[in-house]
Amino acid sequence: MSNPFFENIEKKTGVNMGEVLKLANSIQNANLKDEATVRGLIQQVGKIANKPVKKETEDQLVNTIINNSEQVNFNTIAKMLDKKK
Question: What domain of life (predicted)?
Answer without folding.
Answer: Bacteria
